[in-house]
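Lecture notes, unit on binding sites. The following record was shown on slide 14. It pairs a sequence with iron/sulfur cluster.
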Amino acid sequence: MLDAAGPGLGHFIREAGRGGAQPGGSIAEGQSEPPSGGAMRGKNVYVETYGCQMNVNDTEVVLSLLGDKGYSPIQDPTIADVILLNTCAIREKPENKIWSRLGEFKKLKAVAKKNKRRGPIVGVLGCMAERLKHKLLDADRLADIVVGPDAYRDMPRLLKIVEGEADGGAVGALNTQLSLDETYADVVPLRPAGAVTAFISIMRGCNNMCSFCIVPFTRGRERSRPTTSILDEIRLLSDTGVKEVTLLGQNVNSYADFATESQRGAPGTTVGDPFSTYAAGFRSVYKPKREGAVQFAELLQRAAEIDPEMRIRFTSPHPKDFSDDVLQVVQQYPNVCKQLHLPAQSGSSDVLDRMKRGYTREAFDALVDKARRLIPGLALSTDIITGFCGESEDEHAATLDLMSRVGFEQAFMFAYSQRDKTHAARHLEDDVPQPVKARRLAEVIQVFRETMFGKNEKEVGRTHLVLVEGEAKKSEEMLTGRTCTMKRVIFPKISVPASQHGCGGEAVPQPGDYVSVDVVSAQSSTLTARPLARTTLREFHSLHGSTVPRRS
Ligand code: SAH
Ligand code: SF4
Ligand code: F3S
């Protein structure tokens, strides 16, 4: 996110669209004219994606749906027939960025008009589209189509309406209908060719209604995709060489599929008190009905069993849904990554109460302790909001204490931004002055950095299993990938033994290979390592007894 702070923006991607937007790139009036187009050429579409990984995967769904209608993705907005912005509404700042991009695209339209050519159709998709609806069409016609997250199947029709309009004289087209059951289960997302990692959406929407959050309003009610379609997609990705999938959902671990028969008989997982599906001490404002459903622990287990060489991650979870059986699956399966996102939001029980998060500080601490006890080497990340309504200095101090006590390896920290419609906007006062929010944010970041640097330094000398993603950004001589704990590692692109046993000759590791490495130095957000050998997840695990060995 644009006002995000902290090193790895791992789970928030500023611009990750297939269009490959140039961050900060602007479009100047009078830019050279695009090629004439030719009579028979198909239509093309340029996309920029903002917000969370769900949006990245939604963009892949949209490109797949439009691909069926003859649209191909391109990287250059100046020659696009259709320009799409897949947007985020979580805070004010990301929305401001969209308004300025829309202003820039308006210039493109003006250039086209001057040259008596039809300009691009500009569409706003995603959460900001859902939040602002027709306001985006009314605003000086900056957008031609507005499409909410559950209405992407309607895009070809909406595009057709606008294509048929006389230039300038029309009203645009909009569909922001939310759905109770849309999961795009049957759409195969158009993913980048040769990618080693992939996102898979498993559920959509959120029922939690945390008082600060717009997501329930922009994404609608929770609904889960059928288990079988998720497992089929994982099999397909495994067959095409993908080595890591991240299961996605606004509330990923509240997954519950009633259409598929549960194969788990473990006590406490699917029967009895509905709150038994929660971590101890956690509640929510709604009572989940999950009896008899395939729940998250089972899905995770079945996903992990498909291909033991494929890593499984998941985000974004809610801490309440880390029931014991979810933690057990993470612990038991070597290919389920030993990294959990535990969005705390605040370290103060009173603030958590005003946020309607459904847990206290004590319950959160107990969950951290239990997860760490159960899963050796576990890495934790979190989300924090500073300056929420009524936050006192003492309550802020409790968040600083949480940060130093837990020592998260990654954190996404934001100043509170009031969003219309939310409980907080309607009932609480946004009374912490902006400079105070900013100062508290800086303090939280400072504590986070100190603990994180300390942890990174302890990594020096350790052996890690890295999945190679490709060349490092800074140097073609280096390769990059992530550990099971989500740490970014760079290491020299040199020949190494083809296996940890030394048999099979030598080879330079390729994207999609697992490599065992020794960490030689730690920077603020990356580790530099020495590659030891190519390996497999199972080989590494059997040699070290873990995918996160504690000693070198
Ligand atoms: N479902 C996840 C969070 C999804 S939203 C959870 O329950 O934790 C991603 C993050 O954006 C949130 O964790 C929160 O830290 C931040 N966020 C949401 N609304 C916000 C607001 N109004 N102001 C500032 N940050 C916000
Ligand atoms: Fe927003 Fe809360 Fe839902 Fe997370 S759980 S998406 S913070 S309402
Ligand atoms: Fe933003 Fe919507 Fe994701 S508000 S964080 S894009 S669910």
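Take-home: Residues 463-544 form a domain with the OB fold (Dihydrolipoamide Acetyltransferase, E2P) fold (CATH 2.40.50.140).
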